[in-house]
Amino acid sequence: METVEEGWHVYIVCCRDGTHYTGIARNLARRLSEHNSARGGARYTRSRRPVKLVYAERAASRSAAAKREYQLKRLPLASKRELIESSQHPLI
Questions:
Q1: At residue 61, what are phi and psi to the nearest 5 degrees?
Q2: pLDDT tens figures, 25-76
Q3: pLDDT digits (tens, 9 = 90+) for 57-66
Q4: Out of 2.30.40.10, 3.40.1440.10, 3.60.10.10, 1.20.1260.10, which CATH number does the structure's domain 8-86 have?
Q5: Would you kindly state where each structural domain of the chain is located, as residue ranges?
Q6: pTM: predicted TM-score of the whole model, two decimal places
Q7: How far apart are the first and last CA of the chain?
């Protein structure tokens, strides 16, 4: 049985400066820890720590997660905020 940390996820984090970063991860808890640790994480978030998880959704496969990530990255900021605010997805 998979836990919430396992399987593919598409996620959005809010950075210290108010910007958003969208990514995919197989283990969401570990990836969030990497974003906030001294080593690891995306180059974009390294200078914008700490980051906070504001949205996450499961994906059936890595391919599906990457496609959804691409869709979310193309959304205007207002649409991303709307998605985050209306989200019914439980966060860890």
A1: -155, 170
A2: 999 999 999 999 978 788 899 989 999 999 999 999 999 999 999 999 999 9
A3: 999 999 999 9
A4: 3.40.1440.10
A5: 8-86
A6: 0.86
A7: 17
